[in-house]
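Run: sequence + adenosine-5'-diphosphate -> complex structure.
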Amino acid sequence: MSTAVCYERTREHLEALGLLEALASLDSVLEEGQKQERVTVEILDDLLTRERAARFERRVATNLKLSGIAHPKRLEDFDFDAEVDVTQQLIQELATLRFLHHGENVLFLGPPGVGKSHLATGLALKAIEHGHRVYSITLHEMVERSRTARERNRLHVVANTLTRPDLLLLDEVGYLPLDRTDATFLFEVISRRYEAQKPILLTSNKSYGSWSDIFPDEVLATALLDRLLHHSTTVNIRGESYRLRHRRQAGLTPQKPSAE
Ligand code: ADP
Ligand code: MG
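>> structure
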């Protein structure tokens, strides 16, 4: 077979197999290979590396879109010098995603505005950048969605959306008390993820001792906390709301709020 025919066939193969990045970079890879006097296997390696890199990038973009992350706050934008009680070292350790590979939950507790959602979202984005599937939802949204789905006999669809991803970010637990049906659904989601060793990032303004206030009874609250905390890291953030502190520093809010 002549080189020209072989080249055409290669293009056809790449197209038929959907290796579109390899197809697009075929000419430059071949040229570069010739210039650098590369051996065939090096040229192949270069071509397939490009294909895989492009696929990975697409996967990350799709996973980000599907994650439901409304405000993509990054860990790199978190100000660790702010006087919050959260060490950069701990967050750096979490950012290695070991917790995700070990199926460990990470729970951020603290008053409003101290950066719980920012840190949880930052970790979720790290997971996405490493090719993981993530789903982010507030507890309130989850309750609303499950109620609508239940009416339409489609609760299993919502349950799957929440249990399938490698990582679930469950934001704002504790702002609203749950009735028995909603609490049972939450318990099911948490149990299923626990059984599958799929971790949860969770934020809450309530300390664990007050979780029985959110749930219809203490037995359910205890069973749920049991599963959540079995393999977990808790990040307790104390201190004042980041925004309030900045406004006060800028002289816009003269008094430190007495409640804090
Ligand atoms: P929480 O979830 O604890 O109520 P958020 O994470 O929503 O608080 O933070 C409120 C706002 O303040 C967000 O816009 C967040 O990006 C910002 N913020 C909070 N803490 C920090 C920090 N240490 N560095 C940078 N931004 C912060
Ligand atoms: Mg929050």
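>> summary
Strands lie at 105-109, 134-138, 167-173, 200-204, 232-236. The mean pLDDT is 92.
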